Amino acid sequence: MRHVVVFVILGMTMLMLSGCGGTGQTIPMAVDLKNVPDLPPVKNAPRVAVSPFKDVRADKTAIGRHQHYIETTVDRLVPAEGSAEDQITKFVVQYLKEAGFPVVVVPPGAQPAADNADVIMTGEIESYWNEAVSRLGRTELSSKNRLRIKLTNLKDSTTTFTTVAGEANTKVVTFEPSDLAQLDGEALGESLARFLADFTVVDRSLKSKREG
User: Distance of CA 194 to CAs 79, 83, 131, 187, 188, Å?
Assistant: First the structure.
């Protein structure tokens, strides 16, 4: 009888482990601007035409993962906007508007009308990753990004490249996907805050402070 009980317990344990295993779900994740600090408006902000950022990462499908406490279960995080290019471009547009820039979106390679923009902004997504790792009693969250930004001033046809990066980390007791979405916004906001800190408005153009 004792042997029967042992086999039953082993069988139940195997079922529980197999039920918790697997590759997990594919979960859409948006960017939440809730944790992005309020921005002081930029004085005399030029009109900016944003052309979609290009994703140059090796894996363009995923933007993160959630590793459950049972390590064999990993959820794959994908952009809620359809692609990392669309998601980050939308964030850039929202961020610039919050900073007081008049913004229009133009197709890749398109030239905006002269009365619609003073500056063209585009760039490349070199890295973009969000991760949640659940452990006993907590989940550790991290968000990282690296963007190479290209600015073209239409008045004098000058072009400037700059690379910015953002990173944010936190821990939560009970994890919700919205926690990581807010951290993602915080990290992207850090990158764009560094970008704006490196440039100044000069005669309806954006000029790098390093040129001065």
Answer: 24, 24, 23, 11, 10
Mean pLDDT, residues 151-163 taken together: 95
Return the ∠ at Cα 79 (arms to 75 and 80), rounded to 5°. Answer: 100
**Does residue 71 register a pLDDT over 80?**
no
Give just the sign of the alpha carbon dihedral 9, 10, 16, 19: negative
Mean pLDDT value of segment 152-169: 96
Q: What is the mean pLDDT of the segment spanning 185-190?
A: 96
User: For the chain, percent helix, then strand, then coil, each to nearest 5?
Assistant: 30, 35, 35
CA distance 112 to 140: 43
Taking domain 23-211, whether its CATH number is 3.40.50 is answered by: yes
Q: Which amino acid is at 204?
A: R
- CA-based torsion, 58, 60, 64, 70: positive or negative: negative
H or E stretch at 85: helix 84-98
Q: Residue 191 corresponds to which tokens in the numbers above?
A: 């990158």
